[in-house]
Write a structure and sequence with these properties.
It is built from four helices and seven strands; from the N terminus they run ααααβββββββ. With 155 residues, the chain is α+β, with helices and mostly antiparallel strands. It has two domains: 70 residues; 84 residues, Immunoglobulin-like, CATH 2.60.40.
């Protein structure tokens, strides 16, 4: 729990990577995938050496790939920052930041942004909430190792 508290206080590549490793060992695959994804987003641009940077990125990519074998991936296309996305009544989306996108993940156009949510297999309710508008709900039947795409563009 100390690592998670530290990560919430100050997200960093090292802590996200370690959380991913611990969660994968505990078979907590959705948070393991999310933290590996975050570690890739937070990886320093300049490593002490190019070789060390590649090795760290490759190790984190491997952790993400391992966790993705056990979860479904929900790719959400966003437009603007005024939407909140909840899965099973738990808010999942935070404002975007520049990020690394692994080659096996879909890339949308540059006018929008995307966020990935990793889910246990089964049925999930995805709710999009905009200020001053009616929320939209979608029901998703998630299967292991599949990617689902939803758009959070306001009506």
């Amino acid at each position: 729990m100390k690592l998670l508290e530290l990560y919430r206080w100050k997200p960093s590549y090292d802590v996200a990577s370690k959380l991913s490793e611990v969660e994968a060992d505990l078979k907590l695959y959705p948070p393991a995938a999310a933290h590996a994804r975050e570690a890739l987003d937070l990886q320093p641009v300049e490593e002490p050496s190019a070789e060390a940077g590649r090795a760290a990125k490759d190790a984190t990519d491997a952790k993400l790939a391992q966790a993705k074998e056990h979860v479904a991936m929900l790719a959400i296309r966003m437009s603007g920052l005024d939407v909140e996305v909840a899965v099973d009544d738990r808010v999942q989306i935070a404002p975007p930041r520049p990020r690394y996108i692994p080659k096996d993940e879909p890339v949308f156009d540059k006018l929008s942004w995307q966020r990935f949510i990793y889910l246990e297999p089964g049925q999930h309710t995805v709710e999009f909430r905009w200020k001053g508008r009616e929320p939209r709900r979608d029901v998703l039947h998630a299967e292991v190792a599949k990617t689902y795409e939803l758009s959070a563009i306001p009506p």
